[in-house]
Please model this.
Amino acid sequence: MARARPFSAARLPGFAAMAAATFLILYAPIATLVIYSFNGSDSVAVWGGFSLKWYGAAWENAQVQEATMRSVVIALAASGIATVTATMAALGTTRRGRFPGQTLIYAIINQPLMAPEIVTAVALLIFFSSIKVATGYTGLGYLILAHAAFCVPFAYLPIRARLESMDLTLETAAADLYATPWLAFRRVTLPLLAPGIAAGAMLAFVISLDDVIITEFVKSAGQDTLPTYMLGQIRRAATPEVNAISTVLLAVTVALLSLFFAVTRKRA
Amino acid sequence: MTEDDAAVEIRSARKEYPSAAGPVRALDDVSLTIRKGEFFTLLGPSGCGKTTLLRLIAGFETPDAGRILLEGRDITDDPPNRRPVNTVFQSYALFPHLSVARNIAFGLEMLGRPAAETRARVAQILRLVRMEEMADRRPDQLSGGQQQRVALARALAPAPRVLLLDEPLSALDLKLRKEMQRELKRLQHETGITFVFVTHDQEEALTMSDRVGVMRGGRLQQVGPPREIYARPVNRFVADFIGETNFLEGVARGGAVHLPAGAALPAPGGAPAEGARITLTVRPEHLRLNAPGAGRLEATVAEIVYFGPAAHCHMKLDDGTPIVARLEEGRMPEPGARVGLDFAPGALQALED
Model:
C-alpha cells in the first residue's frame, strides 16, 4: 500500500556523500596520528613498519613523566576547586524560585565560555605577574587557580542540568519530615545530585588536562604541562613520540567523556 | 467549642505575593479553627488561597500578619522541620533514590527514633496502606496509585498531630480516585489524626469531609458540614460552586419577589425591604414538572441532557432566564413543550451576592 513517507534528511540528494566527507575530514587526521604513533621510523610522515618503540620512549622520557605528573596534579586540583564552586553556584541558582537577574548570573558564571581564551590568558598573565612581584610566590598555585577559573562553567552546566531536573518539592518534603536544612541537603539533594557532580568533575578534569593557551601564558619557567611540552617538542623536531603521547591522551579523554555520558544519561 | 478541641487555629492570617501586576492577596484576613480528629476540607477554585493556607500550616510560607496555633501552641515562627504536621504533596515528592520502606522511614530517622522502633513502625504503616509487598521497590517502579499510598504512608509514619493533603488525588483517574477517597476516609478513621484536605473538586469535598471551608479570592466564604453548605449556602458564589443550582433574580414588592418573567414567589426568610433586588436559588432536584398552568412558574423546555441515573431538563422562563430541573424517571417532555414548575416553599432561598 502506498503512503506518504515523512520527511527525512537521509533522502536528500548527496546526503551519503556529504556525510562520508564530513566523517573523513573529522577523523582522517586523528586516524593518521594514531597510526603513525606505531611508526618504526623517526619520521611523523614516512612509515617504517609497526613498532611500539615511541610509546616506550615517551614512557622513559623524564621530561614527559614530569609534565604528565604536573598536568594530573593541576587537573585534579583545578577540577576539584571548580566542581565545589560550580556545585555551590548551581545550588544557589536553581534551588529557589526564579529571581531578578537570573539570566545575568548565568552569563557571568559562563563567562569563560564566551570570552576569547587568549584574552583570559593575557588578563591572567598580567594579574598573576603583579601578584608574583608582590609576594614572590612562583609555585603551581597560579596554574591551578587559572585552570579552576575556566573549568567552572564546564562543571556548572551538567550540575545545573541535573538540579533542574530535580523537583524542588523534594527538599520541601524533607523539611516537612523533620530534616534540618543540612540533613535535607545531605540525605536528599546530594545523593540525587551525585551523578551531576561526577559528570561536572570529569568534564572539568578533561578540559584542564588539554589546555594549552592559558597554561602557556601563565606558567613559569620549568612548569610545562603535557600539552605545552608537546607544543615545544613539535616546534623543534617532531618525532612519533608526540603521536604516542597524543594517542594516550586521546584514549584517556575518550574514556573519561564516555564515562561522563554514561553518568549523565542515567536519570534520577 | 472549647480551646482544647482545636487542632489548628488560624488567626487573621494575611499573605501577599509580589507579581508583575502588583501584589496579589493570597489570604485576606482568614480566621479558622480546625477541630481535633476531624476531616476538614478547604475547597475553592484555583487561586482562591486554599493551598497558601495549607502551606502556612505546614510552615513552607510565613504569614505577613496573623498567627497560627497548633493545639494551642503558637507555631507561626517555627520552621517546617519543627512542626509536628506532615504533608502529602500533589506531586507526591517521593525520594527517588530511596526504597518505599526508606521513604516511609525518613521522618522517623530525622526524628532520631531508635532503629528497631522505626522498623516496626514502617512495617505497621505498610500494612495500614496495604503496600507490604512493595517495601523494597523504588518509587519509579510503582504505579500512580501506589505512589500515592507511599506518599500517604510516609506522611503518616511519624504520627503527626495534623496531616495536610494538597490535592493528592488530582493526578489519579476517576475510578482510582473514588477508591482512594474511601481509603483516605478509612485511614483517617483508623488513625484518628486530624486531616486537612485541599481540593477544587466539590463532589470530593462533600463526600469525604466532616466540615468544609469554601474559599474565594483569599477569603473564607463559608465553613460548615457538607449538608449545611449544600442546603444553606451563604452567598451566590457558594451556591454556584457547590453542586448545580438555578438563580432567579427579582424585585421585592409587598412581601413577594417579582420575577421579570411575571411570576411572584414568596420571599424566603421574612419580608425583604420594598424594592430590594433579591437573588433566589432553587436546586434542580427540588423542581417538579407539571402541566402548564399548574405550578409557580411557567417555562418552555429547551433541551434534555441524560447522564445515566437521571436527566437534566433545561428550560427557559418567558423572559429567557434559564432554569434546570433534575428528572429521575417517568416520561421526559419534548423540547418546545410548555410546562409548569413547582417546588416546596422551603426549597427556595434568598442569597447575598
